[in-house]
Amino acid sequence: MSIAYREEHDMFRKSVRKFLQKEVVPYFKDWYKERQVPREIWMKFGSQGFLCPWLPEEYGGADLGFESSVIVSEELAKADADIAFSLHSDVVVPYIAAYGNEEQKQRWLPGCASGELLTAIAMTEPGTGSDLAGIETTAVKDGSDYIINGQKLFITNGWDCDLAIVVCKTGNSPKQHHNLSILVIEEGTSGFIKAKKMEKMGRHTEGTAELVFEDCRVPQSNRLGEEGKGFYYLMEKLQQERLVAALGALTAAEKMFEEGLEYAKTRKAFGQPIGKFQHNSFKLAEMATEIEIGRTFFQELVNEHIEGKDIVNKVSMAKWWISEMANRVAYDSLQLHGGYGYMEEYPISRQYQNVRVDTIFAGTTEIMKSIIAKNLGL
């Protein structure tokens, strides 16, 4: 079942595409080498209504629903521009929209939509990745504040963020799931340290950082929702986060397939295009089939998500299968390119590096399979 886009969505897509072709595509290679996207681009993207377009108009959005988020991700992939707009718009900001009180929404959401406030979400720690209940960063009450101490790793947008949504331990219940709370920490807060920008295999424009909190004093009014409910808020929002992750892997696979198909049609060896060799043509047929299966499944899930259905099990299936499929496409498409695929001047080289983490972040393949197994009664 295809996604039911409306006329305003079609207009939105054309606007996003035009913007990316004019303001991003000509400069992206330089940004990637410099490992930094100019803040000005975030501001321009926001001024056009492309950040958090699902937000109600009263908070600076265009009220275009999750469909608009899908459009932005698709157009970024087509433009071959891996910028963390979707993480900001569709993973982090929804926490404020869902669990923030009215004062918090009025204070932060308009800036998130305009690009004045960039966001990151800080869950992972040196000793805690998939096991969120084991988070050790503490937030201890002191008067009307919390005093935060701890360390977070692999935080996308962490280096550039103005708001960090930080998962902290605020209790000592034997039931670990009852101990977590979510705090919003603003840039410039004493004790909030962006320790270092982390060097990665790929995705060099995302400002992935190590964040440290040393007696970081944050007002209790910066807590999102109720104390001790953080784990449950995370579980509620992980459905959309993993759907967004699946979309990123799917659009990457589609782009890499296009690169491989075009190369196979134009590159000649032994007097004919390499795509004419049966092995290569079969590989391309396999890639096209798997991508079509992934796209069909994904579109079904988007429609169910928009309808408000609980699709945690299906999303877990989509997240692991599509991300693993994208890595297969990356391997085979680079192989088709031969030695040229290993050269960074060819997009497939960067795409190959970028897609590797898709089986890891937002829940590893193994964690997704564990969720599915549990829901099977195993």
Q: Can you put this structure into words, describing what you see?
A:
Helix content is 49%, strand content 15%. It is α+β, with helices and mostly antiparallel strands and 378 residues long. It has three domains: 111 residues, Butyryl-Coa Dehydrogenase, subunit A, domain 1 (Orthogonal Bundle); 109 residues, Butyryl-CoA Dehydrogenase, subunit A, domain 2 (Beta Barrel); 144 residues, Butyryl-CoA Dehydrogenase, subunit A, domain 3 (Up-down Bundle), CATH 1.20.140. The strands form three sheets. Strands 1-4-5-8 form a four-stranded mixed β-sheet, with helices on one face. The protein has a four-stranded antiparallel β-sheet with strand order 2-3-7-6, with no helix packed on it. The protein has a two-stranded antiparallel sheet with strand order 9-10. Helix 1 packs parallel to helix 4. The radius of gyration is 21 Å and the shape is globular. The model has no long low-confidence stretch (mean pLDDT 96).
What coarse outline follows from CA principal-axis ratios? Answer: globular
Largest sheet: 4 strands, mixed
Domain count: the total is: 3
Which homologous superfamily in CATH is the superfamily of the largest domain?
Answer: Butyryl-CoA Dehydrogenase, subunit A, domain 3
| CATH topology name of the largest domain | Butyryl-CoA Dehydrogenase, subunit A, domain 3
Structural class designation: alpha+beta
Count every beta strand, where a strand is a DSSP E run of 2 or more residues: 10
Q: Give the strand line-up of the largest sheet.
A: 1-4-5-8
Task: Please report the first level of CATH classification, the CATH class of the largest domain.
Answer: Mainly Alpha
Mean pLDDT: 96
> What is the straight-line distance between the termini?
31 Å
Radius of gyration: 21 Å
User: Could you name the ranges where pLDDT drops below 50 across 5 or more consecutive residues?
Assistant: none
What is the annotated CATH architecture of the largest domain? Up-down Bundle
Helix and strand element order: HHHHHHEEEEEEEEHEEHHHH
SS strand fraction:
15-25%
Query: Which range best describes the helical content: under 10%, 10-25%, 25-40%, 40-55%, 55-70% or over 70%?
Result: 40-55%
Count up the helices: 11
Cofactor: FAD
Domain Acyl-CoA oxidase/dehydrogenase middle: 120-216
Organism: Peribacillus cavernae
Domain Acyl-CoA dehydrogenase/oxidase C-terminal: 228-376
